[in-house]
Amino acid sequence: MKMKHSTPIQWRFAERAEQLKSSFIREILKISQRPEIISFAGGLPSPATFPIAEMKLAFDKVLTDNGKVALQYGPTDGYLPLRQWIADDLSTDGATIVAEQVLMTSGSQQALDLLGKVLIDEGSRVLVETPSYLGALQAFSVYRPEFVSVATDEHGLVPQSVDPVASGARLLYALPNFQNPTGRSMSIQRREELVETCARHQLPLIEDDPYGALSYAGAPFPKMVAMNPDGVIYMGSFSKVLTPGIRLGYVVAPLPLARRLELAKQAADLHTSQLTQMVVHEVIKDGFLERHIPTIRTLYGNQCQAMLTAMEQHFPLGVRWTRPEGGMFIWVTLPSHIDAMQLLDAALANNVAFVPGAPFYANAPETNTLRLSFVTVPPERIALGIAILGRLIAARM
Questions:
Q1: Is the pLDDT of residue 56 over 70?
Q2: CA distance to 85, 91, 242, per residue, from 287 (Å)
Q3: Is pTM beyond 0.85 here?
């Protein structure tokens, strides 16, 4: 029976709830779903790369052969054959990863949340790149850290910039391969220097690597976790090489940390979908990724080149941009007087979307920057969208 004179509840939210902010990218995506919009905004993999037939066969096989297990609760750390596959894939002659170090997560975003929950107290110093991945800043900010930005240049994170701020820091978060948002990659020398610097300061280094397999040349960089398995936390995902809809990621950590992360995950969701994990293992166990990933590299490489060519033709002098050798993003720096947020308003009015750069900065945002993603837009639409964007920029020069 409905009460006649009920009074609306005056909600009292926890302090951490007051810290929650909507992702700027997710808000833009709501707008850019309209078919008339040429969207360079989302970091979405191209649906043309999704292995639909292979996934369908794997679902049928898993449910037919082992449906009762697949549909049951599973262990918190994940499906052992898949964890072993990941451990074997990451192991090198100089560094062996064991399955006990691998925790399956509901997308790599959950891994970020669990790492924040386990490693960050209120006021803890957290080191991040300038700029950094917005999703990581969003996940860590719930735990109210003190973000400290470390310097980057055209070659990515500058290891020497870590020394002055490392003392007392809880972690350093980095994306060394085709970074989101800039598309930059760290050299092998810088990786070695960064690992040595973090080890010297006893500073946990998070190596987030969702794009490492997407090198257009097909020659991935060595992983930092192989340089120091006791001090580097590695994050991976199947979103960019299979499909993001399965929401399957993983974190590989030294055993003491892996156990703490497992306990945190128990409290969060008990376990990641057993069915999804079994299906993914069925798809990849016999070398499918080695055959599939080159087709993604070719598609993304061609579309990246289409965007770079269009930018050379249509962007005015005074605009600078990165030239990535893999991944999904190009980073644009406008003349300092142009505000990318205001440019976005004009772009949307002309049916073009992108992501302004300011939200990617933990401190001191550079408002004359923006991120472009090319992977879901065909070349002819890329050319049209960049031409429109070039005209709008030129009008503000």
A1: yes
A2: 11, 16, 13
A3: yes
